[in-house]
Amino acid sequence: MRCLWLLMLCLSASAARAQQTASAMSTSSAAPTAHASIMRTYALRLRPGDDLRQQLQAFTEQHQIRAGALVTSVGSLTTTTLRLANQPGPTVYRGHFEIVSLVGTLSTNGSHLHLSVADSTGRTLGGHLLDGCIVYTTVELVIGVLDELDFRRETDPVSTYKELSIYPRPATPTRSSKPKK
C-alpha cells in the first residue's frame, strides 16, 4: 500500500512538472500577431544612372504605398552605399556589383531596406540601403502592395529604435450610387 501511495505521489509530481514545462513553453513560443492582406504587385525597371533608394522612395510616394514589400530584385550597380551593421554612417564602395538580394518594407511612413551585392570576385557585402546606390545597367523590381495594412515606424521600448508597427488600414468610404434628395 505504501509503495502504491509513493508511486502515485511520484507520478503526480512528474505530471505537474510536465504541465508547468508545457505551460512555460507555450507562453514563450506564442506566435506574434499577424495581419492578413491581399497583395497586388508592380513590376518596374530602373535605368543606368538612377539612384536605387531615391527611385524606390519616389515610387512609394507617387503610388501612396502605406504598406509594401520588395518581392524580388536583380540588377547591377556602379556605386553601392550601405550602412553596415552597428555603424553610425555610410560606407561607399565603387566598382561593378551584382545585386544578390534586396529585401525590406516600403511605406510613406518610413521604409526599411537591406541590400546585398557581390563584386567581380564573388565577395558579398550587405547592409542598410542608403541613397547613393547608382544603377549600372539595370535594376528589375517587383514590389508588392498590401492595401489593407498601414506600416508605421514607432520607437520600440526595448531596442529604442524606430521599428515596424502594423495596423489594419481603415476602409475607404465608398460613394453611394443613390442620388441625394
TrEMBL record:
PPC domain sequence ranges: 36-167
GO molecular function: DNA binding
Keywords: DNA-binding, Signal
One protein family per Pfam: PCC
TM regions (residue ranges): none
Signal peptide annotation: 1-18
PANTHER family in the record: DNA-BINDING PROTEIN, PROTEIN, PUTATIVE-RELATED
Protein known as: DNA-binding protein
Source organism per UniProt: Hymenobacter persicinus
